[in-house]
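re: ur msg from earlier - yeah i can do the LH5YIG7M complex, just paste it... oh wait u already did. ok heres what im feeding in:
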Amino acid sequence: MGQPVASRGRGATPTVGKAMLNKYARAFFTRVLTPFAAFLIRRGVSPDTVTLLGTAGVVAGALVFYPMGEFFWGTVVITLFVFSDLVDGNMARQLGRSSRWGAFLDSTLDRVADGAIFGGLALWYAGSGDDTILCAVSIFCLASGQVVSYTKARGEAIGLPVAVNGLVERAERLVVSLVAAGFAGLHKFGVPGIQYLLPVALWIVAVGSLVTLVQRVVTVRREAAEADAATEESQGTEAAK
Ligand SMILES: CCCCCCCC/C=C\CCCCCCCC(=O)OC[C@H](COP(=O)(O)O[C@@H]1[C@H](O)[C@H](OP(=O)(O)O)[C@@H](O)[C@H](O)[C@H]1O)OC(=O)CCCCCCC/C=C\CCCCCCCC
Ligand SMILES: Nc1ccn([C@@H]2O[C@H](COP(=O)(O)O)[C@@H](O)[C@H]2O)c(=O)n1
Ligand SMILES: [Mg+2]
Ligand SMILES: [Mg+2]
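and the outut:
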């Protein structure tokens, strides 16, 4: 199998602005999760099943617990399932079965999971959380995260390397939001003051996503201009022959 379409271009041009977690944490979690991935393979579980069940668990955790303000239990459930996103690819690679379909399913269901997490938070602030501004910030996190991912997918689809990941990738969005939500949930267990972590995290993710969006759009604009200029030059050379 050649390089999956979803990651095409990553090897061609060195990627600048590689986000911290993808750079440092992925290797660590790959080592930690490889035995578990191997165990699932031995039990006959497929990578697609892990992708689907993992997403279902994240969606259930986010949409059942977060709208009720149960941030601790919601985060515990989401955390249990969100690592499936690292396990599925690990299984596919161990099996030598990394596929275009798998890449598509993985990325598409990432968007579903992210939508549920920030949607669940928005529902809380729109309801009993009663905070219009934080509801709007949650919706902004949801929408900007999806657009950030889209810039890379669309850029790669039109044949550009999109050689930038930017400040805040998906892993950063998730870690910042989930760690804050988990700790903020401890307020219900009597820990004072800690509930403010979640609003702070949402603002950080919102601003970080906006910066990342600008970084990616600027990169795609430059790469597109370079690619178009190269095409025009080669057409001019052809016409001159
Ligand atoms: C006392 C309070 C207790 C609270 C309960 C527990 C709290 C635990 C809190 C948080 C845990 C958060 C874990 C989040 C793990 C995220 C793992 C993950 O899914 O990473 C996915 C990411 C990307 O994978 P893909 O290549 O499959 O996805 C691509 C990506 O989506 C692209 O999007 P873009 O970036 O462009 O926006 C798409 O373009 C592309 O299509 C798509 O394919 O994987 C990585 O990046 C790898 C790195 C993973 C790093 C995980 C770090 C976890 C770090 C710490 C967790 C532990 C924190 C402990 C807190 C303790 C609190 C007590
Ligand atoms: N069901 C799946 C899921 C993933 N893949 C492959 O893994 C890549 C993603 O790796 P992660 O470590 O980020 O999960 C993806 O691009 C596919 O190549 C798969 O084949 N089947
Ligand atoms: Mg995955
Ligand atoms: Mg994924």
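cool cool. Residues 1-12 have pLDDT under 50 and may be disordered. ping me if u need the other ligands too
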